[in-house]
Amino acid sequence: MVAEKCPFAEKMVTRTVDLRSDTVTKPTEAMRAAMATAEVDDDVLGYDPTVFRLETEMAKIMGKEAALFVPSGTMGNLISVLTHCDVRGSEVILGDNCHIFIYENGGISTIGGVHPRTVKNNSDGTMDLDLIEAAIRDPRGEIVYPTTRLICLENTHANSGGKCLSAEYTDQVGELAKKHDLKLHIDGARIFNSSVALGVPVDRLVRAADSVSVCLSKGIGAPIGSIIVGSKSFIAKARRLRKTLGGGMRQVGVIAAAALVALQENVGKLESDHKKARLLADGLNEMKGLRVDPVETNIVYVEIEEGLHISAGKIVKNLEERGILVMDVSPSRFNSSFNNIQSVINNRNNC
Ligand SMILES: *Cc1c(COP(=O)(O)O)cnc(C)c1O
């Protein structure tokens, strides 16, 4: 009798390597233990001691006066932009390839009535200083102009493949903002990755910023939450706005406890993520038909050349059958000439 071919032989999955995103982590044992035993109280009333500890710690790390725990990075950016632009008819200058402009449902406009003015993002995540300056409205100008109030940067810049903005560049944008009496906000969802990759302390990286939004649920692997930091008066206004948006949470120390563990356990592991990402990129670059831009942090974007005659979607499916999870992030699924796959390395998920 001829042995039947095992139907799973070709797709034998012994373990999963999950590279979809750095957000797909599960809380560690230490995080769950901290959550179970967290001291809590009502944080809307300002009494939760664990949230207080997290906010105090983050303000210190970021070199700012105060901090506010928020449910997500999207809400952190929204609150920050709206706090700086609290007058109707405000305009914000931001990159045309940045997260706030592309992936946040246009919330700054639909909820805040803030007008976005985009400036071209370079492939390294920066915007040219002269283009930023040219986009600033002349306050003595005609009555037809909105009023520029804010500039937003993103560090690392996600859509550019996790590129780091230097402290020097950020300072230059900060000086430009000051010169024109504008505020500077940094979407620092992955600011710790940038700090580790550049070898520059995180407070130095954001010194020029009036506010920073930092995701705890990305590279450093907390299950939920973001933090915004800034001056005491900025955070006081932001706290009020958080309540308006429905982001005031009660005994939220349960979540903050996990974030405190993440800060302690995981910032030191980011360098290893970056090494793995570079290793993956080098390997992929040796394969015909694939192109990967230089990797600076934990994000690896793979471009599939047209000559390969296979779509990103198909490759993603093939990999999935072999236990490797990645994401199809082609800019348009209606235009097959752009095919991109994203893999994000985070040692806290199964790889
Ligand atoms: C993920 C991300 C956000 C938003 O964070 P959420 O917690 O998913 O709302 C903002 N900016 C950048 C650059 C991000 O990568």
From TrEMBL:
Q: Which cofactor does it need?
A: pyridoxal 5'-phosphate
Per the record, its GO cellular-component terms are:
cytosol
Alphabetical keyword list: Pyridoxal phosphate
List the Gene Ontology MF annotations in alphabetical order: L-allo-threonine aldolase activity
The chain residues annotated with the modification N6-(pyridoxal phosphate)lysine are 218
Where's the Aromatic amino acid beta-eliminating lyase/threonine aldolase domain? 18-305
Record's InterPro entries? ArAA_b-elim_lyase/Thr_aldolase, Low_specificity_L-TA-like, PyrdxlP-dep_Trfase, PyrdxlP-dep_Trfase_major, PyrdxlP-dep_Trfase_small
- Pfam families hit by this protein: Beta_elim_lyase
Q: Which SUPFAM superfamilies match?
A: PLP-dependent transferases
Q: Which BP terms does GO give this entry?
A: glycine biosynthetic process; L-threonine catabolic process
* Xref: PANTHER family: L-THREONINE ALDOLASE (PTHR48097:SF9), L-THREONINE ALDOLASE-RELATED (PTHR48097)
Q: Which family does it belong to?
A: Belongs to the threonine aldolase family.
Q: Which NCBIfam families match?
A: GntG_guanitoxin, PRK10534.1
Protein's recorded name:
Aromatic amino acid beta-eliminating lyase/threonine aldolase domain-containing protein
Its taxonomic placement starts with: Eukaryota, Viridiplantae, Streptophyta, Embryophyta, Tracheophyta
